[in-house]
## 1
Amino acid sequence: MVLLSGGLDSTTVLAIAISEGYRPYALSFRYGQRHDVEIAAAHKVARSMKVADHVVMDIDLRAFGGSALTGKMPVPHHDSVEHLDPGIPVTYVPARNTVFLSFALAWAETLGSSDIFIGVNAIDYSGYPDCRPEYLAAYEAMANLATKAGVEGRQRLRLHAPLSQLSKAQIIERGLALGVDYGLTHSCYDPGPDGRPCGTCDSCLLRSKGFAEAGTVDPVLGA
């Protein structure tokens, strides 16, 4: 089970899962985010990597708001990565990874799968609390208490976060070594009407920094 947003990180994680011999099922979410471009990217990635199945779940976190990605507040833009807010930014979606992982856990149980892959990162990231290693360890412990399969001893869930301690450049290098086509991916929080990335949101700036440090050109942003 791979959580697939259509972004750089989750696409790399999907490639890693395949390289390790897993037959992946991909799960994406239309959760009320500002645009559908990332869902289109997830479909392209899933087709390209020939996943066993790709499900897009519809949930609407706009009912709660609390984020620039699901509410009316604007997405922040910056001149450079050095100007990113050191605190938790307004693009944080309350409890998003917990919500997503709960759906993944449910599908994993019905499939008889014991492995969930997630593309969180705690090095070059936006400071989201649900990307930290201690959060992932706590969720894995909870998940093994939460299902019938777990209680009956038929499932021992493992939560894989292979990018957790990698820089964005290291993630890109790993993906390129596995043949990932980053031209299929989308990372921008605030794309234009034509779907082109803005280049100045937190996610675009971190992505640009990663490609620059990896010494290669981003096929989407072109730099």
Note: The chain has one domain: 2-213.
## 2
Amino acid sequence: MVAFALKQRRGSLRLDDLIQEGNLGLMRAAEKFDPHAGTRFLTYAAWWIRAYIGKYLKAARSTVRPRSGTVAQPDASLDSPIGDDEDVHWLDRIEDDGPGPEDTYLFAEGDREVRDALNEARKRIGELGWDIVHNRLQQQDSPSTLEEIGNRWGLSRERVRQVEVKTKQLLHRHLVTLETVATRDAA
């Protein structure tokens, strides 16, 4: 057991700790050994000793490999304070890649302007056009077909397609105007 512990010893791990883990493996082997199984106790115990020492080495191994000549530092919590200053923690130093408050506000403001523009355009496109926008253009999963909308309104598929084309053109003009105004205001 001592010879195996000496072979497995790495870095700053203490030899007596490895031997102690080997002793735990030896005790486990003594508990589990079946003399009628046909194996020698020494062969059976060696497996348990190696397993316990290997498990200890795996648990004691640091995830960060130190440079030669240095000792690995213990793992630190992100909630632990930096230095003597109790107010600043490691977690405070991690950079956030998400959008900042200004970007979030600008996106929300842009969404609001688009919603307002759509509500304004709704008055001009009428109920059929709005039904097409809502059930055909906005739905991502399963948009309504031209025929389904036509059946609801008592119109032909071709007439619904014509209204859809006109509605798209009107929305495009309206949103381009909105974008032009927003660009001019930003400058």
Note: The chain has a mean pLDDT of 80.
## 3
Amino acid sequence: MASDGRRAVVLLSGGLDSATALAVARAERFACYALTIDYGQRHRVELDAARRVATALGASDHVILTVDLRRFGGSALTADVALPRDRDPKAMVDIPATYVPARNTVFLSLALAWAEAIDAQDIFIGVNALDYSGYPDCRPEYIHAFEQMANLATKAGVESRSRFTIHTPLIQLTKAEIVRRAFDLGVDPALTWSCYDPQLDGRVCGTCDACILRAKGFAEAGLTDPRS
């Protein structure tokens, strides 16, 4: 779909949610600038998934930026900490060991910097506050606060040249609704990767929170996940 000239920076991890957010931005006729952060995550296979998705969905540009959060640790995704396994999705109300300290704040700040540099007013992020692992930086009140900050802390915002908007098209959707939205928008789930613990044979582990939530979404949507 052709762009109408507006630019958007889209945070793209390579997972199903971020791929769907990119597809939404494309459907809304933004020229999409995909930003993937290589933060030292244990599931680095998602970086390859992000490359595939950016190409398949026609991103105008795709940057993979290295910010090695392993130096800080503090998470099962960036340090030698055990992953939560086999959790009941209904019990995912605490903040799990896979929470990476301030990750979305770091990511959104980098997206904001790129957006200001290319005169984009819009940033898309695939956060979800319904079927998710309890991360505090996925909540609507956090996104609203960051958006306010973005318009206070940038030259473009202070000079009123831009009014930054943080788009969260999935934030109030169930995982099943996200899966259906992905299919409706032409996202190929086989290109995406969600699992926190890739197996040596290239399969998903099936027991981490990301795998469990993804499986729940596909099952409730009545669709088959090519990654399962």
Note: Residues 103-117 form the longest helix (15 residues).
## 4
Amino acid sequence: MKAIVLLSGGLDSATCLLIAREEGYDVYAMSFDYGQKHALELQRARALAGRYGVREHRVIRIDFPAARASALTDPSQSVPKDSLGREAIPATYVPARNMLFLAHAVAWGEALGVGDIFIGANALDYSGYPDCRPEFLESFAATANLATKAGSQASLRFRIRAPLLRMTKAQIVSKAASLGLDFAATSSCYDPSEAGKPCGRCDSCLLRAKGFSEAGIRDPLMGPM
């Protein structure tokens, strides 16, 4: 039994990796270098893939046609700080990011004969990205089964697995802890220092801090509670 896991190197995707392993899957991991400022996450993804016995790990380079459309890829924009919840869709949104990631995963899955694709999307404690909503994931799965040879011939059924979708960040932290995730091996920050220290103020850091605080667990990346 095989599955593809979209592995960013962050808390959520690492938790998905361990959930897939817990369910008995041989994991094929896929990460993406899309010119993100927080490229540290790719180092963490490689380390996680090696540590947790991924069968194969691919890092795909994507050249976004509109790098200036996101604070995560535009060198002239600063990553927003202390602004969680101020905008329905924040400046860190990257156009069609999950759509592109999932399309690559489906293509690899069709070649491997793998229909289960795990993504760490969350629709409760999240920044408001539209490509994390259940409506999008359901629609994409339907499209994948219509648009591929394997899907159209019913030789393979694609399923977009989002086990964290309706979990709070605290529930995600607790689940990860129960599965033995080394939290220090992950990176969630959008704007880490050159030494890899999280900024503590971007949306992703604030959500992560909220989850650890509510779960009553110390985050080794941020020091004492």
Note: The chain has one domain: 2-215.
